[in-house]
Amino acid sequence: MAAAAPGRPLAADFEALSYISSLVEAFQAFDSDSDGLVTAPELRGLLASLGLDKTEAEARDMLARADADRDGRLSVEELLDVMNAGELGLGALGAMLQSALPQLEAAGAALVGADELARVLGALGNASPEDCAAIVECLDSDGDGAITIEEFRLMADLL
Fold first, then answer.
1. How would residue 69 be classed by pLDDT, with cut points 50, 70 and 90?
2. Three-point CA angle 82, 88, 91, nearest 5°
3. Of 1, 25, 38, 71, which is most buried with the most CB atoms under 10 A?
4. What whole-number distance in Å separates Cα of residue 81 and Cα of residue 96?
């Protein structure tokens, strides 16, 4: 299974992965009650952090248009849809991350570093150690060189 879409360099996937990761981090930062959903006031703060200043009414309107399940709140999946993340063509990278997930979970890894990811993906024939280091770097929100298994699972599911 190739990590990049045909005719696209893997570096383009890493740039897109970094973009999606930053959207997810912004979403989580503004999800003040950590319920996985953002209200209109939280959305307004999130958009402002991305340099998109919106009025309360504009944020409510945007939320209403993006709120696919009509619950009055925005999920991270709905945010990514609004921000056109699905058009970045990361399905192959998502499939690669999904393929690693069962082995990482079976190993009981709480944190996933580049070496652990390279061991799993290398055994599956999906990625080089350099690719794995770049994936972890893209997803590492606190700069410690590793990501939690929960963050890994979230990104694998979102892609």
1. very high
2. 110
3. 38
4. 21
